Amino acid sequence: MPTPAPSNPNLTPAAAGDPVAAPNFEARLHTFWEKYANAVYMLCAIVLIAIIGKGGYESYVAHHENEIGADYAAASSNEKLKAFATGHPGHQLAGVARLRLGDDAYTNGDFTQASLDYQAAVEVLKAGPFAGRARLGLAMAKLLGGQTADGENQLKQLANDVGQMKTVRAEATYQLAAQANAAGHTDEALKYLDQIMTIEPSGVWAQRAMMLRSTLSASTAAVGLPSGGSPSASKVPAKP
Q1: In angstroms, rounded to a whole number, what is the distance separating the alpha carbons of residues 32 and 80?
Q2: In this predicted structure, what is the pLDDT of residue 69?
């Protein structure tokens, strides 16, 4: 019986041992799509849902933050600040609210309450300029509230913390100088005054340091001592 002719006369049956042509790219793509089309569609759907979900979440967060900001702006009294801080524990603005409450208690001489509020502010704010302010307030509240050693130690930590704002460090150092002066430790006070000039030589606390130094010079001269104590302590470093 004769062999049927191929449908395409230009093609001949492959002989045994002849290499078989590999399927081209279109054929491979078609095969892949037949096998994995559903999985590809599912993956695309998941990605699309994730994108939509992320956008929705970010929109929700922005709206929520705006609401919290509005609530903070409306807290016009200590009672409202307390309620705000209680209602938004852990939020940065709650830390700022506690800082404001601490400042108010400190101004009114209630150093025990000021310490509590400043401590709460420190725990929430953790870092940044407001955190430094809260730590400074806490140290001063403890110092003036009778916890002298604890307050002084915290002031020293702030004064030597190069990660803090220079103004915070300079004020902490000035308070240490004032404390040493009040205790009659003139040499120690002068040491702190010199330290201020290395921290922030052109700041407001440097100006106050020079004023305090002048009073120390006058008091030591009155009892027959060389003006300003030791020569090395009395010399104010030049501005860089």
Answers
A1: 64
A2: 78
